[in-house]
Specification:
The protein contains 13 helices and nine strands. The protein is an alpha+beta fold and about 325 residues long. Bound molecules: phenylalanine.
Length: about 325
C-alpha cells in the first residue's frame, strides 16, 4: 500500500503536461472527486494503526505535490491562450506612422500660398523637347545662355532632353490657354552638375506665371513680398537685384533679409545678411508671341525658385544631398503628427 503511494509520488513529480487538456485530466485523476487521492483517503481507515502515521504523511505529500503541479502549469497555459487572443476592439497604437518628405511639405506650402492669390497648379512632362525647354523661351540654338543650365540629353538626339526648369510647363500652358493666366508649375528638374552639399543633378522647382492686360513690375513685387512674408514671417524684407534671364525683360533676383545674428548667418549670407531665394522678371514679348499670345495686348510676370533651397533655409539643413538619400533618421524628423 505504502509502496504504491510512493510510486504515485514519483509519477506526479515527473509529470510535465504538454497541453491544458493534459493538465486537466491529471488534475481530475489525482484531485478530482473520484480521483486517486480521495480513494487513498478513504482507504486510510483500513490501514493498520502502526502504519497510519507514515501512510498519512505520504498521501498528504502526494496531495500537495499534485496541487503544486496544477498551480505551476495553470498560469503557463492561460497566458499562452491570452497571447493568441486578438481583440479587434482594442484602440490602435499609431507608433509607426510615416512622415511627409520635407520637399513635399515645402512644395505644398508654396502652392498653398499662391493658391490664395488665384494661382492654380499645372504640370508637364519631365522629358522635354528643345522647343519647350529652350527655343520658345527666347533661347535659340547656339544661344550662349543655354550654358547657364547644363543639360542632360536623351541618347544622341539633341531634341530630346530632361527639362532643366519648369518654365517648359508654362510654355505648354500658354500654348493651350489664353490670358488671363495665373499658373504655378511645381516639379522635378535635371541639370548636369557635380553633386555637392549645395548642388545636385536632380532638384525641384516651383515656377509661377501671371499674364493679363496691364500687368506691371509693381504687381510682381507685391506678389513676391506677399510670398516672402507668408513663407518666412510677417517681418521679412525683400530686395530685388537686376539680373538676366533670356525669357524675361527686365529680370531680377530676389533676396530676403536673413540677418546676421550668428556665425552661420555670416557664412550663408556671405556677410551681407541677404539671401537669394528666386529669379523673376517681366515675360519677354518674344516668349508671349512664340506661345501664341498677343504681346501688344498682354503683359505678364514670371518667377522661379528651387524648393530645396527654401527647405534648407526653413529647416536649417546644411547639406542638400540629405533630401535624396531617404535616410529614415532624417526623414522621420518631419513627421506631421
Ligand atoms: N527658369 C529659371 C531657372 O530655372 C527661373 C526663372 C523663372 C527666372 C522665371 C525668371 C523667371 O533658373
Amino acid at each position: 500500500m505504502l509502496e504504491s503511494v510512493k510510486n504515485l509520488l514519483k509519477e506526479v513529480d515527473s509529470f510535465t503536461p504538454k497541453s491544458k487538456e493534459e493538465l486537466e485530466s491529471f488534475r481530475l485523476a489525482y484531485l478530482g472527486k473520484k480521483g486517486k487521492l480521495n480513494g487513498l483517503f478513504s482507504a486510510f481507515k483500513d490501514v493498520p494503526n502502526e502504519q497510519k502515521k507514515e501512510f498519512g504523511q505520504a498521501i498528504n505529500t502526494l496531495k500537495q505535490n499534485a496541487q503544486a503541479k496544477v498551480d505551476q502549469y495553470k498560469d503557463t497555459f492561460n497566458k499562452e491562450e491570452k497571447d493568441n487572443d486578438i481583440d479587434l476592439t482594442k484602440p490602435v497604437t499609431l507608433d509607426n506612422l510615416g512622415s511627409r518628405h520635407p520637399i513635399s511639405l515645402v512644395k505644398n506650402q508654396i502652392v498653398d500660398i499662391f493658391n490664395r492669390i488665384g494661382f492654380t497648379v499645372s504640370e508637364g512632362p519631365e522629358i522635354e523637347d528643345d522647343w519647350h525647354n529652350f527655343s520658345a523661351l527666347n533661347l535659340p540654338e547656339e544661344h550662349p545662355a543655354r550654358d547657364m543650365q547644363d543639360t542632360f540629353f536623351i541618347q544622341t538626339n539633341p531634341d530630346v532632353l530632361l527639362r532643366t526648369h519648369t518654365s517648359s510647363v508654362q510654355v505648354r500652358y500658354m500654348e493651350n490657354n489664353q490670358p488671363p493666366i495665373r499658373t504655378l508649375s511645381p516639379g522635378r528638374v535635371y541639370r548636369n552638375e557635380a553633386i555637392s552639399s549645395r548642388a545636385h543633378c536632380i532638384f525641384h522647382q516651383v515656377e509661377g506665371l501671371y499674364i493679363d492686360e496691364n500687368v506691371s513690375f509693381a504687381d510682381l513685387k507685391q506678389a513676391l513680398l506677399y510670398f516672402a512674408k507668408e513663407m518666412f514671417g510677417e517681418k521679412t524684407k525683400i530686395r530685388l537685384r537686376p539680373s538676366y534671364f533670356p525669357f524675361t525683360e527686365p529680370s531680377a533676383e530676389v533676396d530676403i533679409y536673413w540677418g546676421l545674428k550668428n556665425e552661420s548667418d555670416y557664412r550663408i549670407t556671405k556677410g551681407t545678411g541677404w539671401l537669394e531665394i528666386l529669379g523673376c522678371g517681366m515675360v519677354d514679348p518674344n516668349v508671349l508671341e512664340n506661345c501664341g499670345i498677343d504681346s501688344k495686348k498682354y503683359s505678364g510676370y514670371a518667377f522661379g525658385m528651387g524648393i530645396e533651397r527654401i527647405a534648407m533655409l526653413k529647416y536649417g539643413v546644411t547639406d542638400l544631398r540629405l533630401f535624396f538619400e531617404n535616410d529614415v533618421r532624417f526623414l522621420k524628423q518631419f513627421s506631421s503628427l
